[in-house]
TrEMBL record:
The protein's name in its UniProt record: YfhO family protein
Signal peptide: 1-31
Key words, A-Z: Membrane, Signal, Transmembrane, Transmembrane helix
Superkingdom in the source lineage: Bacteria
Composition-biased stretches (Pro residues): 874-886
Keyword Nucleotide-binding part of the UniProt annotation: no
Bias (Basic and acidic residues): 490-499, 887-897
PANTHER family found in the cross-reference section: INTEGRAL MEMBRANE PROTEIN, INTEGRAL MEMBRANE PROTEIN-RELATED
Chain positions covered by the region annotation Disordered: 485-507, 633-663, 868-897
Annotated transmembrane regions: 112-134, 141-159, 241-261, 290-310, 322-338, 358-375, 382-400, 406-426, 438-458
Amino acid sequence: MNPTTRSSAPLGPRGKAALLAAALTLAVLCAADAVARSHPFGPRTRSVNDLGNQYVPFHAHLWDLLHGRADGGPYVNWRSGFGASFLPDLGTYLSSPFAPLVAVFPRDEIDLAVYVVTLLKVASAAAAMAWLLLALRPGRWWAAGLLGAAYALCGWTLADAVPNPMWLDGLVFLPLLCLVGEWARRGRRPFLGVLVVALAWIANFYTAYMATLAAGLVLLLRLWLGDLTRRQRLFAAGRAALITVLGMGLAAPLVTVVYFGTRHAYPGRVREFAPVPTEDLLARLLPGTYSFGTPAVFVGTTALLLALALPFHKAAPARLRAGWTLLVVAVALSMQWGPTHLLWHAFATPQGSSYRQAFVLCALLVIAAWHALSYGVPGPRALGAAGVLLALVIVVAGGSERTTRAFTLPLALLAAVGALGGLLLLGAKRRNGRPLAVLAVALLVCTQFGEAAVTSAADTRLRLGHMDDYAPWGARQREQAEAIAGADGWPRHRTDPGREQTVGNDPLLVGGQGAQYYSSLTSDVLSRTLTALGGGWTSRGRNVQSLDNAVTDAIFSVGARVHSPPDPHQNWFPQDGSGVTVTRQDVPPLVTVRPHTDRADGPTDLFGFGPSPYRNQELLLGTRVYTVPRVSVRTAAGKPPSPSDDGRPGLRVGPLPYASAPRKPTITGSCPAGSELYLWAPHLSGTARLADGAASGAGPGVEPTGRFRSDQPVTKIAPMQRLGTVGDSGRFRIELSPNRTSLVPDGAVGCLDTARLSAAVEGLKADGATDVSVSDGTIRAELPPHSTGIAVVAAPRISGWRCAAGNAPALPAKSHYGLIAVPLYGSASSVTCTFHPPGLRLGTAVGALSLTAVLLLGASDLIRRRRAPATSGPMPPAAAPPSPDDPPTRERVTTAL
C-alpha cells in the first residue's frame, strides 16, 4: 500500500470507537446542559463553588499571561494576595495540556472557554477509554465506543469533576496509563510511555497519583492472568516501574514546587474519614442521584449489568472472571476502609468531596463490562443473575436519602429495562442478525444517552441548590475592569478591585493588585498577617478578602480603590443602587525605609503581632493613629451580654426576634470628634450601623451600613469595617442587627485620626524609594543615599524571597511583621529582591537526572540495535504478542526498557 492509499484509508476499529465515544459524550453533555438551561445554553450559571471562585479566575489569569497582559509571570502573581507565588497555582490549576486553549477565546468569554475545555477533557477521556478497551481485548468497536462514553459520563464526572475541571485530567490519563502498562507488559513504546506518565503528573499530580495506582493494579492483574513465566512477569513489572519513575521524574520540577507550596500554605481543616452507609454507596450506582460527599460510581445501567454478569459468563475464562470481579470488589471496599482510603488520597482526607478516587472504580467497572461483552453477549442465565443483583441494588438503595421514589427509582427501572432488553436482543439467535442488531444497538445507545443526560441535568440543577454560585462575566465585571484600567498605576501604587467582591479571586478576573486571593496554596504568612490586621476570610483562612481600611491601604501602597455595590447575583444583604466608583489616596511607595524597632509589648504571635488589629496596623505603619476606646455593649433588652461559651473571645449578642424590632443590640462609647470609626467584629454575622454621633458627608465609596459575614464552626470571619465619622460630641452609638448568635470582642472599636495618618504617609514617602521597578520575580528599588534601618517591601514575606542591599550578596529576606524586609547600613542606595519558588531547584535537579537517564537508555538502545548482527535475507514479520486472555502461549518479552 502506498502512502497516499494509507492516508486515505478509513479509520480502524480503535479510531472509530474513540470517535463514537467522544461524539456521544459531547452530545450528552450539551443536551443535558440545554435541558438544565445552564450557561451557555441558558440563563443559569455554571460557576458554582470553586469553579467560579478559583478555576475560572485562574484561567482568566492564564489568558492574560499568554497574551502578555498579566501583572507578574510564572513565578509571582502580583495581582493576588499583595504578591503570591504563582508556580504552585500553575501546577495545581493550569498545567493541563488543555488549559492553554482558553487563549483562543475572547477575554470576556472566559466562562465559555473553561466550559469548552471541560467538554474536550471529558470527550478525550471517553476516546482514551474506548481505545484502551480494544487494546485489552478485541471486540465490537461500537461497543467499545459505548463503554468509553459510559466511563467518561460516570457519576464522578457529572457530580464532582465537571465543576472541578482540573480533576478531569486524571479521568483522561487513567486509560492512557493503563495503556502504558500494556506497552510495558509487551516491551513496546517505552519512551512514549515515559512521556505519557510525565504529562499525566504535570497535568494534575493529585488525580494522576490515583490513576497511577489504578493502572498499577490493572497491570498486576493482567500479568497474573497472562501465560508468562515468573521471570517475564518480574521483567514486565520492572519495566513499568522504571517507566513510571522516569516519567514522574520528568514532572518533578512542577510537582516539587506544588508540594512545597502546600507545606507553606495556610493549614486547612483536618477531617476524620467516616465511611458512607452501604445503601448510599449502592444508590450512587443508579442514575439520577446526587451528593458531593458520597462516592459517585454511576457508570450507566448497561455497563453495570455487564459487570455484574461477568462472574456468571461461562464463555469467559474462569480466572479472568474471578480476577476482574475480585479487583472491582477490592477497590470498592478500599474506598470504605480508613487506611486504604487514606492511601488513595495520598494520606490526607480531602476537605471537600471525600471520594475523589471514585473514578478509579468507575474505570474498573467499565473494563470488567468490556471483558464480559468481548467474549460474546452474556446469555440469558448470566443476564438474569445480573438482573437479580441489580434489583437487589435498587431495593437496598431505596432506603438511601440519595434516592427518591418519584425520580430516581423510576429512572433506574426504566434504564434497567432498556439495557436488559438491548442486551437480550443483541444476544438472541436469529437468521438475519442485521435488523435485530441495529435495533438492539439503538436501544442500548438511547438508554445510555437518556439516563446519562438526565443524570447530568439533575446534577447541574442540584448543585445550584447545594453550593454557592456566581454570575458569569457580564456588565458588572466589565464595569469593574474598565474602572481598574483607568486607575491603574502599578507599580507606583496598587489598585484594589474592592471590598464588595464578585468572586473569591476578583483581581485575577477583573485586574488590579489587591489582598484578595483564594487558593489551596494561600500562604500561611499572608493569611495570618491580614487576619492580624483585621482582615476577613472564608474557606477556613484560604480565601482572604480585601480590607477596605485607610491604614492598610497606606501600608500596602493601595493608591486607588474600586467601590462596587453588592453583587446582585448574591442575596446575602439588601442591594444598593449605586454604581462602580473609584477613590484615590496618597500612599507611600511600594518600598519604604523604617527604623529598627523593638517588638510590641504584651502577648504576641509568631510575627510579633498582638491581639488588637488596630495596634497591629500601627506596628506596620510605624505611628500611633488610632484611639481604641472603652465601649459598652448591650443586648436588645438593654442588658449586658454574657461571655462566649464556645472558646472564642467576646460578648454574645443574639439575633433579633423579628426584623423590625424597636430595640437592637448596641455598642456605645466616645472618640475624638471627627475621627473615622471602624468596627472589628470577626465573629459578627449581620449588619452594623453608626446611629448616633455620625457626621454627614462620609465620602464616596463608604457604605452607610457595615455588612459582616461569619459562621460557626468557623469557616469564615468578617473583616474590619468603616462605619462613618464621629460627630462633634465625640459620642457614638452603633446598632447591631445580627442574623445569628454573634460575638463582639474586646477592643472592637477603633477611631482613626486622619491627620496623623496623613503625616505618617508623608514621612514614609520622604524616606521611601524614589523609584520602584517590578518584573515577574524581581523587585528593584532606588533609595535615598545613606539610608539606614530596614527597607520594607509591601508584600508578604513568603518563602522563596532573597534580597540584597546594593551590591551585597543576596540572602534570604528578613521579615518585618510578615512583610519582606532588608537591613540597611548606610552604604547602599538600592535594594533588589528576587523570588525563587521553593522546590524548583530540587525538582529541576530530579528532572534533569530523569531526562539524562532517558537519553542514556535511548542511546544505549540505539547502539545495541546498530551493533546487532545483520541477517541474510529479509527479517520475518514480528508476531504481535498475544493478549493474556488468549489461549495459552509463551510470550517472548524483551528485557530492554
